[in-house]
Amino acid sequence: MEWLNQMVSEPYYLSHFLTFFSYFILRTSTSSLLSPRLTHHLLHREIQAVLAFSVLALLKLVRQETWEAFIADMLFFAKVFLVALALVIDYHLALWYLGAFFVIYILTQQPVYQGLGTSSKLTPLQLETLLTEGNISRFWLVEFRASCSPASICTSRCFPELSITYSNKYLSFGIVDLGLFPNAAEKFGIYLGGSMGQLPTYILFENAAEVARIPQLDFEAKSSHPPITKRLLSRYFELDRHLLEYIKGK
C-alpha cells in the first residue's frame, strides 16, 4: 500500500507510470496499422525485452540494498527497453518518448526515503550547537545529503535503518540536508560542485572533533569509491564496537 500511495501522490512515479502505460495504449490502437511482418518482429522484440528486464530485475534485487536504488535502476532499464521498442514501430515515437523522459527528468525527481529511524534532522547551526555543548552524546554520526542528489536518494534508507540498531546514549545519528544549506558544506570540508559527487558524506564526531569520514577528503584524487551500504558504514565507523562498549558500560 505504501508504494501504491507513492505512485499516486509522487509526480515522479506517477509520470513514469503514465508514460509506460501509454505504450500499451499505442500498441493496441496501432496494431491494425502495422504489417504482419512488422507485428511479428515487434512481438519477438517485446518478448526479448521482457525476458532481459526480468533477468536484470532479479540481479538488481539481489545486489541492491535499498528499494530506492532498485527502483532507480529498474526505471532506467525500462526507459531503454521502451525507447528501443518504440524505435521498431517508428523513430518519431522513439523521439517522443525521449522527449517525455527528458521533461520528467527536468520537472520531477525521485523522492528520498522519508523514514528517520532514531536519527534527527538537523540544521548546520543545530549540529554545531550539539557538538559544542556535548551534553547529549559523546559521539555523533552525521549524514550530509541533498534531496537532489541521486546518490543520496538511493542510499537514503541506509542511515535511518542503522540508527535504529546502533543509536544509544553515547552515539547519536543526525542528518543534514546540504541542499537546503549549501553554504555550510565548506565548513565541513564537503565540495558541492559538479554533480555533487561527494554526497552523501558521513562524518563521525567525538566530543566535537572529527575522527572519521567517508568519502575521505582526498576523494577527488581517487578514480572511484565503494558504494554506500549499511555493512560498509557499520565496518568503517566500527558501530558494533561502539554498541558493545555502551552495553558493557551500562
UniProtKB/TrEMBL annotation:
Superkingdom of the source species: Eukaryota
Keyword Lyase carried by entry: no
Organism: Lithocarpus litseifolius
Lineage of the organism: Eukaryota, Viridiplantae, Streptophyta, Embryophyta, Tracheophyta
Regions that span the bilayer: 12-30, 42-62, 69-89
Matches recorded under InterPro entries: Thioredoxin-like_sf
Official protein name in the record: Thioredoxin-related transmembrane protein 2
Keyword Zinc in record: no
Keyword line: Membrane, Transmembrane, Transmembrane helix
